[in-house]
Specification:
about 0% helix; 1 helix; 29 strands; 5-stranded mixed β-sheet; Thrombin, subunit H; mainly beta; about 325 residues
């Protein structure tokens, strides 16, 4: 393939199309549809690294240096290492099938909202590393954790790990994905490791892969530090232009795929229509660390200048023309 890369027609909408962040149309929220949360509102720190809406409707925000914050019915509660959090930074958050909250950072913490108790998980318990980058649920109800020393799996109370000695391109695992086929993908600092059955394969060797996400049709997507986003389609990687830290994050309620970026805002891709939400449209910053569903048709954003909630994502009016190539 040449410089422009074709995205799957499932995403492109009509025929072959790729996308250009610079040509994305602005996503302009309606009045009152974008809520902003800052330190003045109750966040413990401005640099927000992750967000989650739990099953109770509470919103959680992990920050850099300020611990984690919960917004429940308009009231803020902050949890720090003094309360039992492993450290005062959280870069990933996940709610498990039992309603417990897991927080990843310099350590791994689990919070039971019913008992209001915290527990720190360490290498002594079976965790592969001391720094945790990602927490992912697999279809078999197991939890996977990407760490600075490999990946760990928790299933039925038992821990197993894929360590630096396994066939990984790098021992730092930024993210974990189990795709629709049941294949395991480990996104590492120096490429992707894919396990299909008992067979391992290293793909995109040398690429710093930072995020993994399943698209609305089951296509695996990967975000890289400097090579743009990658879609794995029929055994071939199709990539966007090299937008720094363009990371696939979440599929919203309208089956649109959202991307975060390290300075270009957030992008929403649906049926070939590419939209951008950034500072010009009301986000606190164009540095977006994470995006999550709010559980009510909207989206949560974690940025380096606060958090935001888009109350309702746009509902497509109908088929749209293909976007231009990303450049």
């Amino acid at each position: 393939m040449s410089g422009r890369v074709v995205l799957p027609t499932t995403f492109a909408g009509q025929g072959d199309a790729a996308l250009v962040p610079g040509d994305a149309e602005p996503l302009v929220p309606s009045d009152g549809a974008l809520r902003i949360h800052t330190v003045a509102d109750g966040l413990p720190a401005a640099d927000v690294r992750c967000a989650l809406a739990d099953r109770r409707g509470d919103h959680w925000f992990g920050t850099r240096g300020g611990g984690v914050a919960r917004l429940s019915q308009g009231a803020w509660t902050v949890f720090t290492s003094a309360d039992g959090l492993a450290s005062d930074g959280a870069g990933a958050v996940h709610e498990d099938a039992g309603g417990r909250l897991w927080f990843a950072g310099k350590g791994l913490s689990r919070f039971d909202p019913e008992r209001r108790t915290w527990r720190t998980v360490t290498t002594a318990d079976g965790l592969a590393g001391t720094v945790v980058f990602a927490i992912r649920a697999a279809p078999d109800a197991s939890l996977w954790f990407g760490t600075n020393r490999g990946a760990s799996r928790l299933h039925d109370g038992r821990w197993t790990s894929i360590s630096a000695e396994a066939p990984l391109p790098h021992f730092v695992v930024h993210d974990v994905l189990v795709d629709a086929r049941g294949d395991l993908w480990l996104a590492t600092r120096a490429g992707l490791a894919r396990r299909a059955g008992d067979d391992w394969q290293v793909l995109r060797a040398g690429t710093n892969v930072r995020r993994a996400c399943v698209g609305p049709d089951g296509t695996p997507w990967f975000g890289t530090a400097s090579e743009g986003a990658l879609a794995y389609v029929d055994g071939v990687f199709e990539s966007t232009a090299p937008v720094p830290m363009l990371l696939p994050e979440v599929v919203d309620d309208h089956r649109a795929l959202w991307f975060s970026s390290a300075g270009a805002g957030a992008f929403r891709l649906h049926q070939g229509r590419l939209q951008r939400l950034g500072r010009e449209q009301g986000l606190p910053s164009d540095v977006v660390h994470g995006i999550a569903s709010d559980g009510a048709g909207g989206v949560l954003f974690a940025t380096d200048a606060g958090a935001a909630q888009l109350l309702q994502t746009p509902r497509p009016a109908g088929p749209t023309a293909p976007s231009a190539p990303w450049r």
